[in-house]
TrEMBL record:
The keyword Hydrolase does not apply. Keywords: Lyase, Purine biosynthesis. The keyword Lyase applies. Its EC number is 4.3.2.2. InterPro entries: AdenyloSucc_lyase_C, Fumarate_lyase_CS, Fumarate_lyase_fam, Fumarate_lyase_N, L-Aspartase-like, Pur_lyase. One of its GO terms (biological process) is 'de novo' AMP biosynthetic process. It catalyses: N(6)-(1,2-dicarboxyethyl)-AMP = fumarate + AMP; (2S)-2-[5-amino-1-(5-phospho-beta-D-ribosyl)imidazole-4-carboxamido]succinate = 5-amino-1-(5-phospho-beta-D-ribosyl)imidazole-4-carboxamide + fumarate. This is Adenylosuccinate lyase. It comes from Dentipellis fragilis. Residues 373-457 form the Adenylosuccinate lyase C-terminal domain. Pathway: Purine metabolism; AMP biosynthesis via de novo pathway; AMP from IMP: step 2/2; Purine metabolism; IMP biosynthesis via de novo pathway; 5-amino-1-(5-phospho-D-ribosyl)imidazole-4-carboxamide from 5-amino-1-(5-phospho-D-ribosyl)imidazole-4-carboxylate: step 2/2.
């Protein structure tokens, strides 16, 4: 019952994947701290400090915490008001041979900041793989409907025709930019490394009796043991909080993309042209049994707005880090960094679920085109008349008068658009009446949309997804299922 008696964030308890939720869990955090302490001890021993083999062995054998160790750590933190020292003590309890050398020469940010950089890099990798799957799913949708004409909208008013697939390429292009930005952020990440209390490495210089080369080698060894190619050349007590800005910016930008896609789908659902998946037992409204609400797209919009705001936390935190550090970043980052990745993870899963079950209604789309196309075809009709020797200005006036009459039928009387019937009945248009069906073919109004779709998928999407890392993610991806 305890889980029901205290607040739990729905990000982890209701929506997020187990993998992302575990990444930011207490178990994984403190396991990572212990791995960092082990790497530090291994490197220090390699460089000549008197650390026993038994100490290293005991540390290796006790990287994972059990329930009893969590209790010890909680009691210690309550007493000391210091989480890192509480866990130094707890690690020493289960690895007594190492108790005197755990955290040797380090400051708290050695484990907290380096662990955060490990989490950020891992989380970005997880997001990239899920994003690649979403792009692949939408690409398949764009290919399938690349030549299906549909009414375009500017200002959400009927505009020139496009195709269902071409509209999807606009979504995919933004997702590709997000893929690029997130990959750049991940690949740019460095390690804080072994820098000491204010970043001067003074404590380590003392440990190695003033040997600068050994201190530099220690920094390099720990960085390599932690799987990073480089460490930031200079830091304060922390790595610069501007790094968090660089990470949260592309996540927020992806949030904007996801919100735009989901908003388009919500509008299309209202038009009954395209719908997100709707299960046979799903209920749209507790009162209105007929309703099919786009709840998945609404969830995407809801969480994307939250994702976009978290960027501000990183910006404001970075701007107020006085001199070598302050502690007003800590509590904020404990909330904002996991929240950003949990939220992005949920949005991606939901977006994948939507992309895998989109339903298109061609007959509804065709009916809406038929309602608007006669007005859009007026220029084609005028040009056809001119080609037959007609006067452009006279033809324009004729079609203008008939268009207004047809508009009256639609707007004032609620009737169908009868412009073409009026054209067929007017003797003035006799020279082109045999061409009207061709002039009104929707496919003659979509320009190069089908060709643009094919070229975009071949020259931009396929190369982007050919990356071995992303391809592996796509090949192993399963159909996205929502827990709620």
């Amino acid at each position: 019952m305890e889980a029901f008696e205290t607040y739990q964030t729905p990000l982890s308890s209701r929506y997020a994947s187990k993998e992302m939720a575990h990444l930011f869990s207490a178990e994984n955090r403190f396991y990572t701290w212990r791995k960092l302490w082990l790497s530090l001890a291994v490197a220090e021993k390699q460089l000549g400090l008197p650390i026993s083999d038994e100490a290293i062995t005991q540390m290796k054998q006790n990287l994972h915490l059990d329930v009893e160790q969590f209790k010890i750590a909680a009691e210690e933190e309550k007493k000391r008001r210091h989480d890192v020292m509480a866990h130094v003590h707890t690690f020493g309890v289960v690895a007594p041979a190492a108790a005197g050398i755990i955290h040797l020469g380090a400051t708290s940010c050695y484990v907290t900041d380096n662990a955060d950089l490990i989490f950020l890099r891992t989380a970005l990798t997880m997001v990239l793989r899920k994003l690649a799957v979403v792009i692949e799913r939408f690409a398949a949708f764009a290919k399938q409907y690349g030549d299906l004409p549909t009414l375009g909208f500017t200002h959400f008013q009927p505009a020139q025709l496009t195709t269902v697939g071409k509209r999807a390429t606009l979504w995919i292009q933004e997702l590709l930019w997000d893929l690029r930005n997130l990959k750049r952020a991940r690949d740019d990440l460095g390690f804080r490394g072994v820098k000491g209390t204010t970043g001067t490495q003074a404590s380590f210089l003392a440990l190695f009796d003033g040997d600068h080369d050994k201190v530099e080698e220690l920094d390099k060894l720990v960085t390599e043991l932690s799987g990073f190619s480089y460490a930031y050349p200079v830091t304060s007590q922390t790595y610069s909080r501007k790094i968090d800005v660089d990470v949260l910016n592309p996540l927020a930008s992806f949030g904007a993309t996801a919100h735009k896609i989901a908003t388009d789908l919500r509008l299309l659902a209202n038009l009954k042209e395209v719908e997100e998946p709707f299960e046979s037992t799903q209920i749209g409204s507790s009162a209105m049994a007929y309703k099919r609400n786009p709840m998945r797209s609404e969830r995407i919009c809801s969480l994307s707005r939250h994702l976009m705001t978290l960027q501000q936390d990183a910006l404001m935190t970075s701007s107020v880090q006085w001199f070598e550090r302050t502690l007003d970043d800590s509590a904020n980052r404990r909330v904002s960094l996991p929240s950003a990745f949990l939220t992005a993870d949920i949005v991606l899963t939901t977006l994948q679920n939507v992309s895998e079950g989109l339903v298109v209604y061609p007959k509804v789309i065709a009916r809406r085109i038929a309602q608007e196309l006669p007005f859009m075809a007026t220029e084609n009709i005028i040009m056809a008349l001119v080609k037959k020797g007609g006067d452009r200005q006279e033809a324009h006036e004729k079609i203008r008068v008939l268009s207004h009459e047809a508009a009256y039928q639609v707007k004032q009387l609620g009737l169908e658009n009868d412009l073409i019937e009026r054209v067929r009945k007017d003797a003035y248009f006799d020279p082109i009446k045999g061409e009207l069906d061709v002039l009104l073919d929707p496919k003659s109004f979509i320009g190069r949309a089908p060709e643009q779709v094919d070229k975009f998928l071949k020259e931009w999407v396929e190369p982007a997804l050919a990356d071995n890392e992303l391809k592996a993610g796509i090949d192993t991806a399963r159909k996205a299922e929502l827990s709620v």
